[in-house]
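Supplementary Text 2. Reproducibility record for the structural model of the 249-residue chain.

All settings were left at their defaults, and a single model was retained for analysis rather than an ensemble. We include the record here because the model underlies the residue-level annotations in Supplementary Table 4.
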Amino acid sequence: MTAAEDSTALLEDARERLIVALDVPEATAALSLAEALAPTVGYFKVGLELFGAAGPGFVRELVARQARVFLDLKLHDIPATVGRSVAVLGRLGVSLVTVHAAGGAEMMRQAALAAAAADSPPGVLAVTALTSLDAADLRAVGISLSPAALVLQRARLAADCGVAGVVSSVREAGAVRAAVAEGFHIVTPGIRPAGAAACDQKRVGTPAGAIAAGASHLVVGRPIRDAPDPVRAARDLVAEMATALGTLS
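Retained model, structure tokens:
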């Protein structure tokens, strides 16, 4: 492979790993952003805000436009309810869907089984601990473990339950990668380019740091959505990811 071919392959690999969060309150703005970014990113995240505003119809529209959708609703309920919900959401054609690992082993198993039974099975990701939480926040809700210990414990449990991967911060990604099998997804939100404000996130990291730690996918919202030129911001981020991937090869 020539140097140019190698560079192109790294950029494509990086693009496939980038998930852009469409964290906007209505469908028109979300579709406009998705259309502009489609050639540059691998997935689009639809979270609670946008799903509440635009609903399943918006997800179907994105899928019809050949977009891969990461549906981030963090399902957390009794096992039967979550299993049935994953089955319904899987029929929307999404590629990835989240449940919350705090729901327990049986809930995650039911989610994984429901996804596997779909015509086009979505990957189920278990959210370990929100990146807006630190040790003090966990203690306030009765969890004595550190964020790192909690994430690792939940990631191991999630892997045993047959889900496709977990969502964790960059800070825990390395320990999770060392503890799980090859091919297990580690999706890292809280991504901030060097020098960018953390805002309400507490456990953050850079794109290069996430790749070095073993993240399979990066979720990026505000650094792209709120940039003066979102397309340029996405391209710069992909380039940083590609450089980091190059150091691993």
